[in-house]
Amino acid sequence: MFSLVENCKLREVNVLDWLKDVLSRIATQPKDKLIELLPHNGKPPQLKSTG
Q: Average of pLDDT values for 12-36?
């Protein structure tokens, strides 16, 4: 978990927003596409850190 949080910070992704997004999508995400939920695979505009 620590590495995911640090990855978010490195990529300027809001950690709490990213985690909410992942938790809301993980149950329906196909197994072969789980990697898409990682912070380094792009960030939806609403997850970008402000400031």
A: 91
